[in-house]
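Can't paste images in this forum, so I'm doing it all in text. The chain is below; anyone willing to post the predicted structure tokens underneath?
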Amino acid sequence: MTTQNTTQTAPTVTNGVNVSALYETIDAVKQTPQIADFQFRAANHWMGGDRNRSIITGFHGACGDHAHTKGPFVMDNAEPPVLLGEGAAANPVEYVLHALAGCLTTTMVYHAAARGIEVESVRSELQGDLDLRGFLGLDDSVRKGFSTVRVTMQVKSDADVETLKSLTQFSPVYDIVLKSLPVEVTVEKI
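Text version of the structure:
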């Protein structure tokens, strides 16, 4: 009886990211570009007053539909009392800041891992300036959304600041916030 000695190579993991799988994904997308087409989805319903709730159950990507195995994810939106709400949850523009911080962080860590750059920690502080006169329709020259968003990231890594900053430029949410994009709104009476 012969015994075969098979050895499996452990995946390369940097910053908690399976870099081996990341490169396999990149190669798969190069070979089959339609794998890269994703559609993320959320459903929302109004709960009265300042409250509404979004539920995220899954998405389409890698040529198929996928349910979130640890979901569904439920996110409530509300307004603080100074904006006539009860303050039961973050408001939608605060969620934009949360999404931006999360995406910048994940993007930096993943791209650093792909380049073999160790990142020990990342902390961010974000500020978004919003003038309510735009939302209230009091001044057409005032933007309804944020006029400026400032992000300060504190990163512990041996890489230089310019390299770390360049990694954030790949963030999808950064791109969404930085550039305008078409949003199609349809209202149907029920």
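Residues 102 and 173 are 9 Å apart (CA to CA). The two ends are 73 Å apart (CA to CA).
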